[in-house]
Design brief:
Number of strands: 5
Order of helices and strands: HHHHHHHHEEHHHHHHEEEH
Largest sheet: 5 strands, antiparallel
Strand content: 5-15%
Shape: elongated
Length: 287
Amino acid sequence: MDRSRETADFLRGRRAALSPERAGLPADGRVRRVPGLRRDEVARLAGVSTEYYTRLEQGRAGNPSAEVVGALARALRLDASEREHLSDLLLPAPHAARRAPHRPQRVRTGLYLMLETLSHVPAFILGRRTDVLAANHLARAVLTDFDALPATRRNLARYYLLDPQARERVGDWERIAAETVAILRLEAGRHPGDRRLAELVGELTVACPEFPVWWHDHKVLRRTHGAKRYVHPLAGELHFAYESFQVPGDAEQTLCVYNVEPGSATARALPLLAGWATSELTAPPPA
């Protein structure tokens, strides 16, 4: 990823999306030829010169201080995910973080045991690039059997965006797919030299018609909780309230747990689905 171009596109996009009213600027009566804020207005709000902000937006300002990055984030009214992305783009990354994408990721034995302990709800562990590192039997039954895929194909974004089954099974597919692209964009800012992420983006660009539009929106997202709905061919409609946690000891692994409302139709359906999934796994091969 070209970090200078990414910085320019991200800042221009956020500047264009912010109205003067939302930024707290008084009406000046001037006819606006561009959407959102002008460069001089962002500079004034951030307390820097217009010339310096222009160089920042063009990727020519070198390494700004953390204070300047924070001032820009406040001026552009960035949310937490956008602030994180801006810091990744403008502040130098530690040496260890730059090398991180090249290390293979491993799941601790204790985390595998935790997934099995959470046998009553779907649970899985994501790594970099939304790679699915481990999943319990209910997660494989509700989404897809990641364990049956080659290790290099076990990826949540690839499932959501490229698997035809996902478009039918994932409720509100377009929103979930677009959010997943925003998660990948955040990853790209954190690890611009990640070759496998670049290959995944290239594959999605070619194979998913919607992906290029969402990717060039430059939206970023780090999901920590929310609601998801699936339509399972055997269990019917399933509703979950998911929570995501960074794994202690490895900030680049995320534990995702799909909780259910006690006494709900989903809570009643999951034991049946678990029984079906277990029988599928233990059934002998056909003669």
